[in-house]
Specification:
Strand content: over 45%
Largest sheet: 5 strands, antiparallel
Radius of gyration: 19 Å
């Protein structure tokens, strides 16, 4: 509370052995005169990835948490599946509206960006509509992830960019010494109802096309 000169002890938002990529946002509550702190992350469960949410109304001292989106599998490989990642919360400082952008994946070439919004401080959420021409749902923005599939050793099988020569890796994929992973995590900013999204996207219509 003094511009970063001193810090309190850390507090636990949630205990989640399957949690990954937590992100934080701070902003005014849309209804009550106070400042809220929000945290989102992905929890990998047996039934699929879930979008988890934490909220603090006392400056991060205590937290209430819940699952806000747990998609199921879909028999149509073109549809969004039970796989999501890279959630990014942000608060409109003029209205208090909370937005959560994230990626949800299909079993086809085209994956999706989606945005949840809340006008009651995270009590309830609804999807925003992109209404993208040709999209399979109004609430999705189709994207094709960028990068070439490769073996990144301890990092797993990932999409990335590379330089130099390769050696044989797992699953018949190449492995490089000079490599960087590519992800489709959206960056989001908002102001007075205007929403700005930025993300990486392939110029190809085929997943994994180098």
């Amino acid at each position: 509370v003094d511009g970063g000169r001193t810090w309190s002890a850390a507090s636990v938002v949630a205990a989640d052995n399957n949690g990954d990529k937590e992100w934080i946002a701070v902003g005014p509550d849309p209804v009550v005169d106070r400042t809220n702190v929000y945290v989102t992350w992905t929890s990998f469960q047996a039934a699929g990835a879930q979008l988890r949410f934490g909220k603090s109304i006392d400056g991060g001292a205590t937290w209430a948490t819940k699952t806000i989106f747990a998609p199921a599998t879909n028999g149509n490989p073109l549809m969004p599946q039970n796989a999501l990642q890279f959630s990014q919360p942000v608060v409109d400082r003029l209205t208090g509206r909370l937005y959560i952008a994230f990626a949800q994946f299909s079993n086809s070439d085209e994956d999706f960006l989606r945005v949840l919004a809340s006008d009651d401080g995270g009590d309830t959420f609804s999807f925003l509509n992109f209404n993208a021409p040709g999209a399979i749902l109004p609430t999705v923005l189709p994207v094709v992830q960028s990068g070439h599939p490769m073996d990144m050793g301890a990092g797993g099988i990932r999409l990335g960019i590379h330089a130099g020569t390769s050696v044989p890796g797992r699953a018949g994929l190449p492995q490089y010494r000079q490599v960087s992973r590519m992800v489709v995590q959206p960056a989001i900013a908002v102001r007075n109802g205007s929403i700005y999204l930025a993300w990486s996207q392939s110029t190809s219509t085929s997943f994994g096309d180098p």
